[in-house]
Amino acid sequence: xxxxxxxxxxxxxxxxxxxxxxxxxxxxxxxxxxxxxxxxxxxxxxxxxxxxxxxxxxxxxxxxxxxxxxxxxxxxxxxxxxxxxxxxxxxxxxxxxxxxxxxxxxxxxxxxxxxxxxxxxxxxxxxxxxxxxxxxxxxxxxxxxxxxxxxxxxxxxxxxxxxxxxxxxxxxxxxxxxxxxxxxxxxxxxxxxxxxxxxxxxxxxxxxxxxxxxxxxxxxxxxxxxxxxxxxxxxxxxxxxxxxxxxxxxxxxxxxxxxxxxxxxxxxxxxxxxxxxxxxxxxxxxxxxxxxxxxxxxxxxxxxxxxxxxxxxxxxxxxxxxxxxxxxxxxxxxxxxxxxxxxxxxxxxxxxxxxxxxxxxxxxxxxxxxxxxxxxxxxxxxxxxxxxxxxxxxxxxxxxxxxxxxxxxxxxxxxxxxxxxxxxxxxxxxxxxxxxxxxxxxxxxxxxxxxxxxxxxxxxxxxxxxxxxxxxxxxxxxxxxxxxxxxxxxxxxxxxxxxxxxxxxxxxxxxxxxxxxxxxxxxxxxxxxxxxxxxxxxxxxxxxxxxxxxxxxxxxxxxxxxxxxxxxxxxxxxxxxxxxxxxxxxxxxxxxxxxxxxxxxxxxxxxxxxxxxxxxxxxxxxxxxxxxxxxx
Length: 632
Hints:
Layout: H1 2-25, E1 55-58, E2 62-66, H2 71-92, E3 100-105, H3 108-113, E4 132-134, E5 137-141, H4 146-167, H5 171-180, H6 185-197, H7 201-213, H8 224-242, H9 245-257, H10 260-268, H11 272-290, E6 311-317, E7 323-330, E8 333-340, E9 345-353, E10 367-370, E11 377-383, E12 386-392, E13 400-403, E14 409-415, E15 421-428, E16 431-438, E17 443-446, E18 454-459, E19 465-470, E20 492-497, E21 506-507, E22 516-523, E23 526-531, E24 538-551, E25 555-565, E26 573-579, E27 584-591, E28 594-601, H12 617-630
Parallel strand pairs: 2-3, 3-5
Antiparallel strand pairs: 1-2, 4-5, 6-7, 7-8, 8-9, 10-11, 11-12, 12-13, 14-15, 15-16, 16-17, 18-19, 19-20, 20-21, 22-23, 23-24, 24-25, 26-27, 27-28
């Protein structure tokens, strides 16, 4: 009897020790799942610099969760998600099982802080390079461009549908199906990326560069980072060659046969090896035509052997033309460099971030701008959820650092020639507007304040005007209260009378098929900008002038604009900058999988002759489609 009691006591003590240990290792916060309330806690597994008080809107087929400053974004998602869901369900010939939950973040920095998915949720990763998805939870963020937000919605919906279609609707079915069906990265990620983004100038330019450089000769040997875009282009080829209906048929046959190889044979009549051979041959012939009579920037690149895979951006020439500042990003780890063009020496002035293959690299910062005096380089960066403004002098090592409290996020900025004002594109309350920040009074003024996306502002040489890119359809401020994306949703260039405080904008471009970006002042009344009107981003010049329209008690003027192309490159100009004081011009292109920077004398503004540019085949097709749609 005593032995039995002793055994029971020993078992009780052992159970107590195990139970205590379990309580110590199991997280005490178990409220990560949603409930039908207005406040949700998501634990503390990732470092969080901001507190998020979540609320939500309930719609018929989904919920939109948001926090302070994201109400307008939640409403945008609510008005557009149904259309995207219907469109992708028709494409896949499959309906979503269960409600979707869109988690909307005001910026990417906030999304990186979230621990949603780290406490029991089923994490499916950052498929498509756009959107994180956990089960039916879709995590999206705003980067200042509503079109990018729409693409994230599509990517999230496509991924949820893909996983339900291939693996089933619950975890048990998915685990069982995953054992029987192996899907390569290019197949899944490429499809989701294609469904989200479609096919445009950026994709066309990147595929051309990869095909001509020979990177895609061995399709099945591509790295994960390369295979996503290769898959994107493969699905585009399948859609164009065999029709959109082939996508749903391929998914269905792949699921039924538990083999992507059998899916291609049954639906397309060719195996995967033959399909990739046809894809490569087609694109090689296709892009040889586009390469004819195209040019390349003159001179020698600033960096002779740039690292492949490293992204270059934010080229900024100093006012005296002696220094070129730029940013590099290597899968999340960024660095800011300053090159002395005269001596050919480069020094690093800032580094931050960390390398990660799991998270999408944030290329939106740091931002660079030289002070007009040329004495220092201003760098805007994000750290611990805050925006910082640092000042770097070429001859000094340590910068001056200041917090910049005034905006959720800054997208781009530039100084006025007087050095006292900064024109910037910033995000407040779920929209990107043009602001002017006074460096002395530390105050800002919102100049546009509407739904449309206003980006890349810069001052004219006399500080009287601000030129910027926008997808707005109306050239008068304050009268258009629309909260819907325009039908074409392309970016044009607009000129604002800043000194006169006029609500009437001057429309510099009006191109329904093309996008314009990065406008900069060349001299009084003349501006450079980049346009993909030909199917490749080339440099254009715009001349703005005025003439007397009529006279009553005062003279009334009307303005007119002339635009001309100045380059006929075979690759997109990714970024450019001008030192008008020293007549130097910098440009960045991607060629052979590497970014190359060039600094040359500023191009002459010759309005008497216009360069003849041949449109790419992609642009010819889009122009033909546009004209057919306009016909009654």
